[in-house]
Amino acid sequence: MRRNRRVKIVATLGPASSEPDTIRRLFEAGADVFRINMSHASRDKLTELVRAIRKIEADVGRPIGILVDLQGPKLRIGEFAEERAALAQGDVFCFDTRAEAGNKERVFLPHPEIFEAVAPGHTLILDDGKLRMSVRDVTKDRITAEVIVGGPLSSRKGISLPDTVLPFGAMTDKDRADLEQAVNLGADWMGLSFVQRGDDVAEARKLSRGRVAIMTKMEKPAAIEHLDAILEQSDGLMVARGDLGVEMPLQAVPGLQKRITRACRNAGKPVVVATQMLESMITAPVPTRAEVSDVATAVYDGADAVMLSAESAAGQYPAEAVATMDSIAIEVERDDNYDRLLHAQQITPEATGADAISAAAHNIAETLNLAAIVCYTGSGSTGQRAARERPRQPIVALTPIAATGRRLAVVWGLHCVLTSDAENLDEMVDKACRIAYREGFADRGQRIIISAGVPLGTPGATNMLRVAFVGENKAENI
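Now predict its structure.
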């Protein structure tokens, strides 16, 4: 099944989309990767969903990616005696270490690490941004704050500290157990929450031992400050605009989205733009005009993928939301201005043979107006380098490794096909031409360009380009 667009679609599974028939409809509507959010899914449900996705994958014969999103640390306040307290602007409110029911003057905060790290002048955000406070004074067992934005505060609401770097990592014991379960089930990507610094990603990478790719969620101000170090440790990034918009000024989020997208494109690593892209489709069969423009902007910027959250997980129109996102992306990529806007950012190849080969393949394909770029890739790096160039021609990634094909399902422009390694150069060219023809990317008499590594089957050895005709019966080299 060939997609008619290059940007990929990530669809979150949930109560509205957990049945195999619904998951299949989401795939048919355009989903390339399925996200399973461990904030809401049990490990038994994770197992059930992974098996359903792999059954669909076997039926359609196309690699499907699975992203398991870890919950991360959840910081919450304690209970109130009357379930909630009404706080007004200017009120003084305290958080303390007494495990007693709260009132309009204080509440229990069961996170001693916060008392160690917070300082006067730091901001406290509660209930997903509905309330905001400024810290006045801190002792080892009490935080005194002034209410800046008031409202009702109820039991067990979340608390965020955008100005504070907290002294713990991004993974809890639950996350470690969920990661191990997901890896054993063959998940392709691991979404890492609450990342503040590069070391947080390094911990997850150590635990995963290379068995799964790490997609770091950019959702905290500290993560933005350490963007370069986090990107270096990560296999990809997600612009988690919901949490980012809670902890940072809303007006800063669009610029941060573009900054993160540019950094990932330059590094040749996938970037996913997420949260509230078609939010109104949770309850409505069509999106707003502003939401359509939001999705289009991410496509014009060259994001690898756009993501649906509650729209597909809990909405009334999950398949329609995917189909809508698919149609928006297709229309944007048909726009006469698309290529010009896509290449407004200049991508400089790294000083490696593989990057030079990928850049040359793009230039040759443009100069000769070739039908497609076909790359053999074992680890996936050759495919990602080809996608980094954002060529006008479709990219067909051939790999003998199912895990590689699934991992590349989130990467811009890659049509992945599982096939055995070629035994010699003639078979390599012949197979590339046959698959490009069979998959509908090249007609007889058209030319394609092929990138591969010699000796064949050697990971990370991309060092060869061939231009070939797609012949009547077999590939005819030129």
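The chain is about 35% helix and 25% strand.
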